[in-house]
Amino acid sequence: MTAIDQVGPGTALEAAEPGGELTDVAAARPLRKDVWRRFKRNRLAMVGLFLIVILVLTAVFASVIAPYTITQRFSGEFREGPSGNHWFGTDLIGRDVFSRVVYGARVSLKIGIAATAIALVIGLALGAVAGFFGGRLETLIMRLTDVFLAIPYIVLAVAIAALLGRSENTVIIVLGFTGWLGICRIVRSSFLSLKQLEYVEAATALGYSKWRIMFRHILPNALQPIIVYGTIAVGSVILSEAALSFLGVGPQDPTPAWGLMVSDGKSQLPVAPHLLFFPGMAIFSTVLAFVFVGDGLRDALDPKLK
Amino acid sequence: MPSYIFRRLLLIIPTVFLALSFLFFLFFALPGDPVNLIAGGADRTPNPIVLQQIEERYGFDDPLPVQFANYWQRTVTWDLGESYLNRQSVNDILGEKAVNSLRLAIWAIIIEVIVGIAVGLVSAIRRYSVADRMTTIVTAGASAVPVFVLGFILQYGFAVVPNLNDWPEWARLRTSRLGPDTWAFFFIPTGEQWRYLILPAITLASVSTALAARMTRGSMLEVLRADYMRTARAKGLKERQVVARHGLRNAMLPVITLIGIDFGTVIGAAVLTETVFSWPGLGSEIARSVVGRDLPVALGLTLAVVVAYSFINLLVDLSYAWFDPRIRLGGGEAS
After folding, report:
1. How large is the angle between the packed helices A135-150 and B2-29, nearest 10 degrees?
2. B233 to chain A, minimum CA–CA distance in Å?
């Protein structure tokens, strides 16, 4: 045991020192590349990434991909099954379901990304302050999250949505302002442990301001769980958006929100299951994609976990 | 330990108070005049005398702080008011709906614990096997499918299709409402009841079962590497005992935290599941009352849920000590 210990570092040192080659190699391969290499090996994560790329392309080029507009009606073709003309069939009032699902990618992505961004900003700010400053401020913030955690999320969301009226922006606000609890706790606990490290002490000794230490020194080191959480959160936000639409407090009818389409088709389940199937599949594959990528990122960012 | 429980119980009071007060003002700001609602709907123009009577009866003419004080005065004495829509006492509604929700929840928890932990355990022991890979994909899928879409898929597959194709009677499940409401020992369905129970129970359990399985797998993998596992094997215990007593018990800790924290998700899932299956429980009633601005019902039922949530969190913390004797609650280290 001791023999190996003595030999081990010595040989490594000898190999590394003379030419300085090892250090060069390490420097030439930055963290980002390393993460990407590990991420690529994860098949599910790559499937997820592929799905997200398709989703983004669909959202960007919706007007090119969709054969019809979201409001165009075909008289006499009500809730017809999939056919050559209408790949996903038509809905209750004769609109092309495929076109609506394609445009729905825009709605979902917009809500998913915007709401997650709001939640991240709030959660990050409160969590960082709570973890870094501690004391009364921390108690206050953590009690606040406890109170909001105690309220069933869906009751809160439905109540705020009912208050603000039904629109895409309402859903973004609702999900943004109710989604910060988890991230706040994560950021707080990271800051709690990171602020005790030597480099923070060093930065304090150099006389840097607290805000600079918080956001320039500690935050970059606390980013990994935030990135993973944020990625998965986009998926859960899309899922929540669908739930709100289903309960009748999401966007209103001409908006091609997937959850709303499922909700509108629910009474037609026995005669026209396609009305639920296609938008349902769209939600499913989108959320799944973000979960896969989030999981892949976690494994890639922290190889010790595997 | 008892002082710890006492402190935690005391802490529940301000949390519940603040949460409910927040909702009170939030609901109060909701558009739509409750007076009109009570008088018979928002669209009609009722007799102004009737409106005034209602205002006086429910105290809507009082200033907001007075109403707020009155609300808490009533609530503290466990008088939750009556529904704006049909004048039914909220206490009665709560009692009636909570029972239905509880039965559904019991079955969902049974499914979650048995299926979730078993699948996670097998997945961890046979790591990288076909079963493990399947588990990874299926659990990810189950957490990504919207609860209501899953509900509709199950309805279609097990109730609509059998009915359309004239399957034998025993193979058909029911999709809507409570059913005959016949139970033995409070929660065991008798007679035809199981046909109504099984689909909503599976739907409600789906998300948390997937989470429990993933969590058990991850946690078990960690525990399997621990030194005490090697020690247990070395002292000649059977593999079964090693896994069950030394492994699983230690691996349960994060799983229990998750099940506790996840209660909010379960409530959300219950709202959706009960709405899809027209199951007359707390979830569907909360959704109905919040959307329909039926303030006393919404607040009363939410109160029950918030209190239940706080107690579950406390139980989760207490169960730590039971699962892991190293943890001494309220002791020397920060709790």
Report:
1. 70
2. 24
Q: What residues have CB less than 8 Å from B153, skipping those under 6 apart?
A: A280, B145
B310 contacts A162? CB cut-off 8 A: no
Q: What is the pLDDT of residues A176-235, one digit of tens each?
A: 988 888 889 889 888 888 888 888 888 888 888 888 888 888 888 888 888 888 888 999
Q: Please indicate whether, in this complex, the C-beta atoms of B156 and A269 are within 8 angstroms of each other.
A: yes
pLDDT score recorded for residue B333: 42
CB contact under 8 A, B152 and A235: no
Contact A122, A176 (CB under 8 A): yes
Cβ-based neighbours of A246, under 8 Å, separated by 6 or more = A259, A260, A262, A263, B146, B148, B272, B275
Q: Global pTM?
A: 0.82
Instruction: Look up residue A288 and give its amino acid.
Output: L
Best mutation target among B22, B217, B290 (most A Cβ atoms within 10 Å) is: B290
pLDDT in tens, B303-320: 888 888 888 878 877 777
- The structure tokens 């709906």 sit at B97
Q: Which chain B residues contact residue A153 at CB under 8 A? A: 264-265, 267-268
The Cα–Cα gap between A165 and B205 comes to: 32
As given in the structure block, the two tokens for residue A252 are: 């209103």
What pairs with residue A279 in β-bridges?
none
Q: Give me the amino acid identity at B40.
A: G
Three-state SS at A134: coil
ipTM score assigned to the predicted complex: 0.80
| Structural tokens at position A268 | 């037609």
Handedness of CA B240, B246, B247, B249 (dihedral sign): positive
Structure tokens at B130: 């076909």
CB pairs under 8 A between A and B: 137
Residues of A in contact with B141 (CB under 8 A): 284, 288
Alpha-carbon gap, residue A103 to A278, rounded angstroms: 13
CB atoms within 10 A of CB A73: 15
Q: Helix H segments across A17-87?
A: 21-28, 31-41, 43-60, 62-65
User: Greatest CA separation found in chain A?
Assistant: 86
φ, ψ of residue B329 to 5 degrees: the values are -70, 140
When scoring A151, A158, A174, A229 by the number of chain B Cβ atoms within 10 A, the one with the most, hence best to mutate, is A151
What are the chain B neighbours of A147 within 8 Å (beta carbons)? 15, 18-19, 22
Chain B CB contacts of A259 below 8 Å: 146
β-bridge partners, B189: B183
The amino acid present at A113, given as its one-letter code, is I
Residue B183: in which H helix or E strand, if any? strand B183-184
3-state secondary structure of A96: strand
Residue B314 · residue B329 · CB < 8 Å = no
Distance CA B85, CA A294 (A): 45
- Dihedral of CA B85/B87/B90/B96: which sign? negative
Helix (H) or strand (E) run with residue B189 in it: strand B188-189
User: What is the pLDDT confidence band of residue A18, given thresholds at 50, 70 and 90?
Assistant: very low
| SS3 of chain A: helix, strand, coil, percent, to 5 | 75, 0, 20
Q: Mean of the pLDDT values across residues B141-164?
A: 86
- A94 to each of A86, A90, A262, B248, how far by Cα in Å? 10, 5, 15, 55
In the beta sheet, which residues pair with residue A291? none
For B241, the token pair is 């005992």
